[in-house]
Write the C-alpha cells for this entry.
Amino acid sequence: MKKILLSALLIAALNSAFAQQLRPVWAKDQANEWYSQRDWLRGADFIPSTAINQLEMWQAETFDTATIDRELGYAESIGLNCMRVFLHHVAWQQDPQGFKDRVNKYLSIANDHHIITMFVFFDDCWNPTYHAGKQPAPKPGIHNSGWIRDPGQLYYDEPKLVDTLERYVKDIMTTFKDDKRILLWDLYNEPGNTGHGSKSLPLLTKAFTWGRQVNPSQPLSAGIWNKDLQELNTYQLANSDVITYHDYNPVDVHQHTIDTLQKYGRPLLCTEYMARPRNSTFATVMPMLKKNFVAAINWGLVEGKTNTKYAWDTPMPNGDDPKVWFHEIFRKDGSPYNPEETTLIKALTSNP
C-alpha cells in the first residue's frame, strides 16, 4: 500500500511539474513581431474538389495529389499565398504514419506553389457522426451535405476518446512543430456551433493545453465566430497567441469587428469570410482587409463535392447552378466563376 501511495504521489508530482512547464501565451510584442515578418496573407479554406469532407481528403485511398496540385495552382495564379485546411483524427487513427506522410506531401505541394498552410484540428460544424472508409456522395444542391465534425458526438459517447485525441494532436503538432510551411495551428473551428455552446469549452481547453505542452514554433489560435458565446470568446481571446475570427457580414459591420478586436493588440487573421448573397464579397471586404493588414482567408477555392457554392440555408435539391454562388472562386476546369473578381484579387495581391 505504501509503494502504491508513493507511486501515486510521484505521478502527481511529475504531472504537476509538467503542467508548470506549459509555455505561456505569446506576449503581444512576440505575436506582432511574428506577424510583421510576413507579407499580407490572403487565401482560402481549401479542400480539393474531389473530396466531400476531411476524411475523403486525407484517407489513403482518396488522397488526390493531382487535384491538390492543380487547384493550388489556380490559387497561385491569382496571388493567393495561404490556405486553411481541416484535418480529422480518424484519418490519423487508421494509420498515424501514413497520415503524417500525406500531410507532409500536401505541404510539399503547397510550398511548391508558394502557399503556407494553417491546419485545423477540431470542428463543431455539420454532421455529428462519421465513419472511416468510403464517404457518402453529395446530396444535390445541399451546402456541405457530407462535412463532418471532429470529434462530434463520439466525444460524448466514448469518454476514453479524449486519450486518442490527445495523442493525435500531440503527434501531429510534435512532428511539424518547427515546419516553416505551416503558418499556425487553428485548434478548434467554431467551438460551440450546432447548439453546443459552452459544452465545447472543456475540449477547447484541452486542445490549448496539449498545444502548449508541445510548444511549437508556430502560434496557437482558435477563431471567434459568434459574439453571443461570451464564455468561449473570453477564453479564446485570452489564450490565442494571435487572434483569428470569422465574419460573413457586409463591409461596414466587418470593419466594426476589426475595430473591436484591434483593441487586444494582437495580429488579426480573418479565417472565414465571403458569402456573396450576404454582401460579404471580394469587391467590398477584401480591400478593407488589406488596408487593415488583416489576413483574408475566404471560404472556398474550387467548386466541388462540398457543394458550398450553394447557400447555407437555401438548398437547391434539383442541383441547378445557383444564380449567385455563395462561396468558391473557380470552376473545376480553372476558369473563374466571376472574372471581375479574379482580376481584382490579382490586382490586390500583386503589391501586398
Remarks:
- The first helix runs from residue 2 to 20.
- The chain has one domain: 27-349.
- The two ends are 67 Å apart (CA to CA).
- Strands lie at 42-45, 82-86, 116-123, 182-189, 220-221, 243-246, 268-272, 295-299.
